[in-house]
Amino acid sequence: MCALPGSKSESNRALVLAALADAPSRLSGVLAARDTTLMVGALQALGVTITHNGDDLFVTPPKAFSPAASIDCGLAGNVMRFVPPIAALAPGKSTFVGDERASQRPMSPLVDALRQLGAQCSNDALPFTLSAPEQLTGHKVVINASESSQFISALLLSGARLPHGIHLIHTGDALPSRPHIDMTVKMLRDRGVVVTCSEPTSWQVAPGPIAAIDQRIEPDLTNAAAFLVAGVLSGGSVAVPGWPEHTTQPGDLMRQVLDAMGAHTTWCDGVLTASHQGTLHGVSIDLHAASELVPVVAAMGAVVSGRTVISGVAHIRGHETDRLAAIAAELSSIGVNATETDDGLIIEGTDPARLHPTRVLRSYADHRLAHLAAVLGLVVDGIEVDDISAVSKTMPDFTERWAAMIGQV
């Protein structure tokens, strides 16, 4: 049995909505990791009171948000995108900074949206200073969010606190990670916010209060992917408790991926079990809706029979690192035939015994690349990763959980 910490995506949305709510909230099971710590710090800088009591966080919204001299976003997309719309509610200047790589992550669609709402921004990427007026005047916002669904979620989360609400329209290519937008909309509606989706690329949020509710965070299903794959590749099985029967988390797609690649998954009373069954093989799959799974799926594809083709994920070039280039480079370095396409990867499965690590695999300060290395290390002798601390972004105790799982498997 492999218990996992709370969902990063749900944790940070819950923190933002609690900060925007009309009364205090209690959040249970919030992920304790760098991304959520950065979110807590950012909200506190804007005047939100957040206290810890065991595994619970108590969030008390301020009567009015205050501008912040410096908000550290680290490398967290949730923080750098969800927090500026809140800062736009605080008249004055707030400055956003981050890790070195943060300046390369897409931000211009959100900055453009904030300008349409009536705020000013000194730059189209981090670092930047946001200057908020006494009251935002904009209502209709048109952006191209094809690089990240987080631009849509960021504006929806704060939309009810705008004087006129927001009418948000996406123009451009298909939106990536659509389930994350569905998660945002559901969490807003759970708090009494009126959200209308008249078309797949259009949303209207009515102005009004955001009700304070106590919430327990679901386990992180994307982080579960590496553990499930480990159980399958080891020839054994891994069970993850607390797996919801119905969820908006994109990581739930991992069940379908494993089944398609010849593994076997079962769900019973909140426990998902993945086990080895028959011959594991490659698959052609569009991961546009769940692109965070790409590194782990690529690792599995590298050591099963046949070809794995991953498509629909061109946007992950703008994640913590250029994930497509990084995955292709690291797999190639151990003898896997892995090539980039316009929107994904082609990976030729190879017998693990024929692979030959020639150097330490690089994590690129990316937690998902560290997961890729961990998965490969189970079946390829000699695999090492240069910086396992990258996992602190979403699971600081990854190595301890991984070691415990290996002992059980």
Provide the fold topology.
Layout: H1 8-20, E1 25-28, H2 34-45, E2 49-53, E3 56-60, E4 71-72, H3 77-87, E5 92-97, H4 108-117, E6 120-121, E7 128-132, E8 140-143, H5 150-159, E9 166-170, H6 178-190, E10 195-199, E11 202-205, E12 215-216, H7 221-233, E13 237-241, H8 254-260, E14 264-268, E15 271-275, E16 284-286, H9 294-302, E17 307-311, H10 323-333, E18 337-340, E19 345-348, H11 367-379, H12 398-408
Parallel strand pairs: 1-12, 4-5, 8-9, 16-17
Antiparallel strand pairs: 1-3, 2-3, 5-7, 6-7, 9-11, 10-11, 13-15, 14-15, 17-19, 18-19
Helix pairs in contact: 1-2, 1-3, 1-6, 3-5, 5-6, 7-11, 9-11
Task: Tell me what the structure shows.
- A hairpin with a 6-residue loop joins strand 6 and strand 7 (128-132).
- The model has no long low-confidence stretch (mean pLDDT 95).
- This protein is globular.
- Helix 1 (8-20) packs parallel to helix 3, helix 7 (221-233) packs parallel to helix 11 and helix 9 runs parallel beside helix 11.
- The chain contains 12 helices and 19 strands.
- The longest helix is centred in the first third of the chain and has 13 residues, at 8-20.
- It folds into 2 domains: 8-210, Enolpyruvate transferase domain (UDP-n-acetylglucosamine1-carboxyvinyl-transferase, Chain, Alpha-beta prism), CATH 3.65.10.10; 221-408, Enolpyruvate transferase domain (UDP-n-acetylglucosamine1-carboxyvinyl-transferase, Chain, Alpha-beta prism), CATH 3.65.10.10.
- The strands form 5 sheets. Strands 2-3-1-12 form a 4-stranded mixed sheet, covered by helices on one side.
- Helices cover 33% and strands 20% of the residues.
- By secondary structure, the protein is α+β, with helices and mostly antiparallel strands.
